[in-house]
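look at this:
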Amino acid sequence: MCLIAFALRSHPRYPLILVANRDEFRDRLTDPLEFWGDAPSLLAGRDLQAGGTWLGVTRQGKLAAITNYRDMRQQVIDPPSRGSLVADYLRDPKMPPADLTAQLRRSGDSYDGFNLLYGTCGELQYFTNRGGSSGPVLPGIHALSNHLLDTRWPKVLVAKERLTALLRQSDPTPDELFHCIADPAPFRDELLPDTGIGPERERFLSPLFIRGDQYGTRTTTLIMVDRDGGLSFMEQGHDHPGTPRRCFTFSLQPQYLSS
């Protein structure tokens, strides 16, 4: 997962709107969005190489999502899978966010760089193992890519601006939300970060939506939770033209809209 834009408790109808692009190598085997057979309350896509996931929810209202923190100058040798952090939190209905926070503080440095959003559909926490300001996510419109939450990378700024503009129009449609992070245009070199991968690769990875033969945006995901507890989770795959959009809806109990 390489770009997440979300509005938390900042829309009169939707306490949470989250739209995200997953960027990954195209030959990495993945199951599409589905309830997991070995964890029937967990709704997510699945990385078949390591067994984890990048973004998911549960019927009980838990939510978690992860992005990599990109810095080639600071890497861990033979680290565990970061996707397991999302999957393990969502699998365990008894694990509160505070327990995961304590676990991350103890063992987060054993992973390569990551940013983790976790909690419930009404209250989210943010944790990074790269020295940022971990803690509760404040109400508002946020975006996260491969640096810290709300870092002023061009794709992060544009994603926040476009989501903000959509929410000003009252009720955005799913198509509008999918479209707001579908832009494949790269940004100018002088605006790009230096993460140790060189200017050409920085340019390739700079768009909101990455187009590449071997690596690129493989899915776009949308989660919308309304004030009555109705949750819609949609996934649009991009590996093959004409892939139908997957959509799941269910109701949360009011207590699951907060932590």
Q: What stands out?
A: The first strand starts at residue 3 and ends at 8. The mean pLDDT is 95. The chain has five helices and 13 strands.
